Amino acid sequence: MNAIEATSVELTYSDGTEAVRGINLAVPEGEFFGFLGPNGAGKTTAIKTLTTLLRPTAGTVAVNGFDVIEEPRAVRASIGYMAQETSIDKELTARENVSFACEAYGVPRGERADRIDELLDLVDLADVAEKRADGFSGGMRKRLDVATALVHRPPLVFLDEPTTGLDPKARIDLWEYFREINRQGTTVFLTTQYLEEADQLCDRLSVIQDGRIVATDSPEALKSQVGGDVLDITLADASEDDRTRARRVAERSGLFEDGTVEPTDEGISVTSKRARRSGTDLLVALRDAGLTVTGFDVRSPTLDDVFLAITGERANDERDRTESGGPGEPVETEVGR
Ligand SMILES: Nc1ncnc2c1ncn2[C@@H]1O[C@H](COP(=O)(O)OP(=O)(O)OP(=O)(O)O)[C@@H](O)[C@H]1O
After folding, report:
1. Whose CA is nearest to atom 25 of ligand 1?
2. What secondary structure does DSSP assign to 223-274, as a single string?
3. How many domains does the chain have?
4. In a domain, 321, yes or no
5. Cα–ligand 1 centroid distance for 27 (angstroms)
6. What is the number of other CB atoms lying within 10 angstroms of the CB of residue 330?
7. What's the predicted TM-score (pTM) here?
8. Ligand 1, residues 9, 10, 13: which to mutate, most atoms within 8 A of Cβ?
9. What is the CB < 6 Å shell around ligand 1?
10. Which of 27, 104, 148, 281 could form a disulfide with 33 if both were Cys (CB 3.0 to 4.6 A apart)?
């Protein structure tokens, strides 16, 4: 059975905002599934629709075999949900918070003590179980949130941007707990703005933009659409003239025959499997052409690069949309908030 099955789901807010515009999803049991998209793409709206917090305007959703409109209680009893905003009470200790969640989810009294110990252990908070949460770091609070979402041993857990705002170490720690939950058999549905996070964790993911799914595949397959690493070049003079010249130099250098060259605000960006190997050769070619380079960075693809490869548009860049729209044509605005 699929843990999640969504067909033609739409969600329009009362002010007319069409946040989700016809989503189809099938997430098999045991999968670590991701929803990847920029701010305002519709991730939270979608997750709230799947978890019964919002009623779909159109379409059907079955979660663990239960219909979200007909059987919302059964859906809620069979899922864990970690919202973007923390649900923990800072006045309470870690143990009290998990205990409170046990009560809310109706975990039988006799099972609570063991369950609480097991969960605090899972998220590495056993040592601070008796400490009040107001002294916890952001990462510790998120871990406590994870524990409270799991008290009733749900077979499916929804995590809404669980690592946004955390430092890299806390983020990586949290990933380990998510992997462990999934290893233990729980299906995970995660939303994120970070390609790296989706890449590290997800078996498959959907890329969402403007309320629509624009691609669904494994992280490897999506990244391979980008076609390599990305070399960002910053020019001393980023006038249109110099950027065009730099682009021509890169294209004619023969260094990146597999790749693409795009102008950016600061200079140019080359995407190629040879970006790492041939970067310094390009610098020499640019210098020989009389162009001054002030910055040089080779990096793995980001969400924005994946969007560009899939849709031909940057995820958060109105300028590109304006250019591709052409003068006089309507321009879509505002992906972010
Ligand atoms: N209660 C609401 N009423 C009207 N519009 C809303 C409401 N909540 C969200 N929106 C709009 O719906 C769209 C999708 O928002 P949503 O929060 O689902 O995106 P998101 O991908 O989760 O973004 P974020 O990463 O910022 O959480 C946005 O245009 C947003 O402004």
Report:
1. 39
2. HHHHTSEEEEEEESS--HHHHHHHHHHHHHSSS-TT-EEEE-SSEEEEEETT
3. 2
4. no
5. 23
6. 6
7. 0.81
8. 13
9. 13, 15, 17, 19, 37, 39-45, 161, 193, 337
10. 27
Closest residue to atom 7 of ligand 1, CA basis: 13
Tens digit of each residue's pLDDT (9 = 90 or more) over 142-189: 999 999 999 999 999 999 999 988 888 888 988 998 999 999 999 999
Task: From 195, 217, 239, give the residue that closes a domain.
Answer: 217
What is the number of residues in the chain?
A: 337
> 104 pLDDT exceeds 60?
yes
Same domain membership, residue 149 and residue 72: yes
- Distance from the alpha carbon of residue 50 to the mean position of ligand 1, in angstroms: 15
Mean pLDDT of all residues belonging to the chain: 89
What number is the ipTM of this complex?
0.97
Ligand 1, atom 8: closest residue by C-alpha: 45
CATH (domain of 151) = 3.40.50.300
Which residue has the CA at smallest separation from atom 28 of ligand 1? 40
Residue of 260 and 60 predicted with greater confidence: 60
Residue 246 makes CB contacts below 8 A (sequence gap 6+) with: 233, 235, 267, 268, 286, 289, 291
pLDDT of residue 225: 83
Cα 217 to middle of ligand 1, angstroms: 24
Q: What token pair was written down for 39?
A: 């701010």
Query: Which residue, 198, 217, 236, sits at the end of a domain?
Result: 217
Measured in Å, residue 18 CA sits from the centre of ligand 1 at 9
CATH at 258: 3.30.70.260
Give distance in angstroms: CA of 223 to centre of ligand 1.
26
